[in-house]
Amino acid sequence: MATSGRPGEVVTCPACGTRNRVPFSGRGRVRCSNCHADLPWLVEAGDLSFDDAVASRVLVLVDVWAVWCGPCRAIAPVVEQLSRELAGRLKVVKVDADRSPVVSSRHSITAIPTLLLYRDGVEVGRQVGAVPAAQLRSWVESALPGD
C-alpha cells in the first residue's frame, strides 16, 4: 500500500507484469506504462494530504479506520480487493483515524470503520460500520458512473 509520501507505490501490472509507480494524487485513471491496462489505485492519506487524495474524476472510496479496530481489519481485505477489481473506475484512500484527527473531525466521524464515497472532491455517500462484502461491493458499484 502506498503511504502519504510521494512519489507513490510501485505496482506490478496484473496484465503484463510491468512495474509502475502509482502516483499519490491525480485526476484521471492510473494506467500501465507498457500495456495501458488500468492499475489498482490505493493510497494512505492524512490530515495534510486528504484533499489531494480525494480530488479525482474517478470515484474515491475513503476507508477511515484504526489499527485497534476489529471491524476495520475485517473489511480491509474487501476494500483492497475492490481497488483491484474496479481498477480504472475506483481509487481507494485509507485514513488512520488516530493519526488524522482533522479529517475525522471535519467529517464528524464518531464510529469506525466509516466509508466515504467522493466524486470530484465532494462527498457523495457514507457507510458507517462493517458490512458484509457483498453489501459493500453493491454500495460502491451503485455509485459508479454508467459505462
From TrEMBL:
<protein>
    <recommendedName>
        <fullName>Thioredoxin</fullName>
    </recommendedName>
</protein>
<dbReference type="InterPro" id="IPR017937">
    <property type="entry name" value="Thioredoxin_CS"/>
</dbReference>
<keyword id="KW-0249">Electron transport</keyword>
<keyword id="KW-0813">Transport</keyword>
<keyword id="KW-1015">Disulfide bond</keyword>
<comment type="similarity">
    <text>Belongs to the thioredoxin family.</text>
</comment>
<dbReference type="InterPro" id="IPR005746">
    <property type="entry name" value="Thioredoxin"/>
</dbReference>
<dbReference type="InterPro" id="IPR036249">
    <property type="entry name" value="Thioredoxin-like_sf"/>
</dbReference>
<feature type="domain" description="Thioredoxin">
    <location>
        <begin position="2"/>
        <end position="145"/>
    </location>
</feature>
<dbReference type="Pfam" id="PF00085">
    <property type="entry name" value="Thioredoxin"/>
</dbReference>
<keyword id="KW-0676">Redox-active center</keyword>
<dbReference type="InterPro" id="IPR013766">
    <property type="entry name" value="Thioredoxin_domain"/>
</dbReference>
